[in-house]
């Protein structure tokens, strides 16, 4: 009804204005009062773009939109060390009397840092439900505005709101969580033409220091970032951010713990082995693993099954890693080239490390026309020279296979060459190349020559190896052209069959 009335009113206003113009009415005398009315309406409606009062949601009171989701530390897997450090800092708030007796200075700030998707924000949500403190949350981008002084004022408002809310609720402490704090706390002097960033950071430093000593509410600032290297050193010194908690990618046991948490509400078939999935997902974050199980459940739904099978999980691993299957149709010649390319990768990979091939396919996914998925046995943090050289040989095997069968290479090996170059560069700076120990200031031409030498030597080894096994290469490629994909066991069975014959 209200909308209908507005439309009728607008129509009457337009008609009246038209008739007035036709009769020669002078509107100039109305410009000033109409402008003042319009400005008053914009100010009252908050549509001027000027900074408004800065409010952030808290864990106390308010409507449903202000409530922080119920998350506990038991819901976070794979981060035992990070959780232990974080819980210890939160305990200082819960047991302030005991810490005072021991002469422990309360921590003023904790920085959660690590790759995306590892659970930094999730840990902050868990802290809101673990501690009896007031909990406020904001993001770094909320403090940086085009108007001078707005960011600094918002920092003051945030700390004031934390203390006033705690006093109103009868609490003695408050937690302020700032997500993406690198936006707010970036190194000063980076923005010479816009000092608003520096002013905002200066105010944050002052508020964390707590120059005033008459505050009865203890405030703990928790920041989260993926780029701790961008933060100003003054922010990271003891007395401000006292602890830096590394929330890193989970290891195999951590991945298994995360999978078990996210699989708790999903029906799994009896053939599902989450431990095997954890072993195949090295490098996955908690967010990746949650997406993996979600995609597996979607796959089961598409197939009309009431439970998730191991095949759904295997398909989900590849989808999370490489994306959805592409519907692009390759020409026969391109498909054959891709089959031999991937067969070369697989044969070298299995030779370098037995049992390493998890699957091979020539079905396009996203930008990949084909790929092999390797199955790491254990998480590895150190690599020897032989292991790096073996990885370089695997990268080169696809292009060399194309050259042996078709007489020349293709652009499909571009990504492989990039990986081989990165591995060779890693060898050079680790002192594992013929140059021995080198400085980080190694001249570009010397580095280039060293990388080329390492790759060229391994290319000779790969060519000699594959020349002696062209029959195996053809057999694997023919099977790929027939079935589009092979599991690791099917591929190894094919190799054993050829060896026996």
Write up what this structure looks like.
The protein is built from 18 helices and eight strands. By secondary structure, it is α/β, with parallel strands linked by helices. It folds into three domains: 64-246, P-loop containing nucleotide triphosphate hydrolases (Rossmann fold), CATH 3.40.50; 252-322, Helicase, Ruva Protein, domain 3 (Orthogonal Bundle), CATH 1.10.8.60; 332-500, Methane Monooxygenase Hydroxylase, Chain G, domain 1. Helix 6 (150-169) links the parallel strand 2 (134-139) and strand 3. Mean pLDDT is 81; it is low at 45-54 and 59-65.
Keywords:
501 residues; Rossmann fold; Helicase, Ruva Protein, domain 3; Methane Monooxygenase Hydroxylase, Chain G, domain 1; 5-stranded parallel β-sheet; 18 helices; 8 strands; globular
Major β-sheet profile: 5 strands, parallel
What percentage of residues falls in helices of 4 or more residues? 40-55%
Number of domains: 3
Q: Please count the beta strands (DSSP E, at least 2 residues each).
A: 8
How does the overall form come out from the CA principal axes? globular
Total of helices: 18
Q: What gyration radius follows from the Cα positions, in whole Å? A: 31 Å
* CATH-defined topology of the largest domain: Rossmann fold
CATH level 4 superfamily of the largest domain? P-loop containing nucleotide triphosphate hydrolases
Q: How much β-strand is present in the residues?
A: 5-15%
The largest beta-sheet arranges its strands as 2-3-4-1-5
pLDDT < 50 runs, ≥5 residues: 45-54, 59-65
What is the rounded distance between the termini?
Answer: 85 Å
Structural class: alpha/beta
CATH architecture annotation name of the largest domain = 3-Layer(aba) Sandwich
What top-tier CATH class of the largest domain fits best? Alpha Beta
In N-to-C order, the SSE pattern is HHHHEHEHEHEHEHHHHHEEHHHHEH
Summed over residues and divided by their number, the pLDDT gives a mean of 81
